[in-house]
Design goal:
With about 190 residues, the chain is mainly alpha-helical. About 75% of the residues lie in helices and about 0% in strands. It starts with 8 loop residues before the first helix and ends with a helix.
Length: about 190
Amino acid sequence: MAAPRKDNVKDIIMNTTEQLLDNHSLADISLAEIASKAGISKGTLYYHYKTKEDILLDITDRFLNQQWNDFLTWVDNKEKDTSMHRLIKYVIERNVQLVGPRIQLIFESCIDNSEIREKLIERYTQFQNVISTKIAERSGSENADYLAWVCLLVSDGLIIQKNIKNPNISLEDFIKKTDSFVESFENLK
């Protein structure tokens, strides 16, 4: 008798890999381990993915698409206060809360995985453009591009601090102070 067919095999593989990445680097995980933890055969895994990097790219797409959709839903909600300081706070806060595979992506990009680096740069550019557009809508600022990059760079720095468990920085306090700082400039207008 054949084993029952699993629906959404790619989702199962991605979810399993994400769980493994919580405690291991991509280099420390084997495709055989992913298959075993996912409860599928290696052949089934190889049918869907040839490399671990392919899985990471799909995880990245899924994660960044969700982040993108969440941002657009939030920023376009007319019932919410999406003023510039709240927008900047939202971007930084969400990026730090929803780390997902970002630390792995940054690492893989830094160790010369050109495919992942290109995908990450493409997504950074997309996020920067939409964040910049939304900042400009709220402030008319010619510095919108710069502020969008500041949001993304601050987020990455905070993600690193969170992952190294730096006891000398409170992410929550840093985000609150950033919000207050931006709000004070916003109120000067």
